[in-house]
Amino acid sequence: MENGKLIKKLKSLAFDSGAALFGVADITAVKKDFHFSDAILKDLDYAISIGIRLSDPILDEIKDAPTKIYYHHYRQANIALDHMAFRLSGLIQSRGYRALPAPASQIIDWEKQKGHLSHKKIGELAGLGFIGRNNLLVNPDLGSRFRLVTILTDAPLKPDKPLGLDCGGCRACVDICPAGAIKEKKEDFDHIKCYEKLKEFRDKRIVDQFICGVCVKACRPSK
């Protein structure tokens, strides 16, 4: 199967599985930042970024802290994404290529909020959105109301292009952030303040994981 047909098949499988976003990125320039061994990453120069939309009613219930239903929804979205990544990886490998499904939500450094790789960075390279003031990927149609997963592969897929956009005059997330972590410039996002607030939510048993959702709610889909 030539690669144009492979992308079409992968995209169809992703959307049939519930995806809302799909893009391909050339990751040769950012592989050095991944937390995988060089042996695993050998020749895996492309990445597929998949996004699943979150429920607007569940997000709209959030005020200044995460809710129990958002916590459940967040976990289920990650499970669904991991299932999608496994299905697409199986298809890629059946065509004779290598595929590595990176976990949708496996943090290896909570204080710096880092996983094995940055799903949002890969999503940005794959043309799914831009990094906003809220330190999340922002899609022009969905805002930040989605979750991402990534598949690394050596299949020479045609990459999409970054959007080259930004938040412009929108500051919906800045004042609403319960930690005061979101600043005017996205580069000034305060990871420590964000982490401390996430830890507070968990320690108060509001949720059992380091999540918030307030800025995700604020970053609404475009009309």
Task: Write a concise synopsis of the structure shown.
It contains seven helices and eight strands, in the order αβαβααβββαβββαα. The strands form three sheets. It has a four-stranded antiparallel beta sheet with strand order 1-2-8-3, sandwiched between helices. A two-stranded antiparallel sheet has the order 4-5. The protein has a two-stranded antiparallel ribbon with strand order 6-7. Helix content is 34%, strand content 16%.
Architecture overview:
It contains seven helices and eight strands; from the N terminus they run αβαβααβββαβββαα. By secondary structure, it is of the alpha+beta class. The chain has one domain (3-218). The strands form three sheets. It has a four-stranded antiparallel beta sheet with strand order 1-2-8-3, sandwiched between helices. Helix 1 runs antiparallel to helix 4.
Structural features:
7 helices; four-stranded antiparallel beta sheet; two-stranded antiparallel sheet; alpha+beta; 223 residues; 8 strands; 34% helix
